[in-house]
Design a protein that fits this description.
Structural class: alpha+beta
Order of helices and strands: HHEHHEEEE
Oligomer: single chain
Strand content: 25-35%
Number of domains: 2
Radius of gyration: 25 Å
Shape: elongated
Length: about 140
Amino acid sequence: MIKDLLSKIDAELLKRFGYYLGGLALGVIALTYINKQKGTTFDYGFNARVLKQIRLKDTLKISEQAKLVLNQYHLDSTDIQYVLLKGDWNRDKSHVHRKPCPDYWIDATIGKKINNKVVTHNFAFIFERCEYVATIKDVKVTSND
């Protein structure tokens, strides 16, 4: 009698657990679809938040010093967008507590096809983030591959 009761409880518990997991899976799928349609992002890591804060500024300016390096290595706006999406924030070299405009070092590896040959360089982009404007202060080549 006790054995029959335990087997019945186990069957009911498994059935409820199955319903729970099925509902949870449908909810996650619906939430993913809705967030994808709205363009919602979940930037919880430090690196992602820093890049997003720079990316969302009203204006992006480029200093003359940075323009020289960008031209020398044939870098364009697509490469800058890539850096702001996939770059790595170098916390040790950044001055995040500088007032009124902190600066951030963003490291990125960029490959360019020049004369049918892919040339890859490691860059350090120094961004200054003010209230409404982000500025590329400098671009440094950290090493060649």
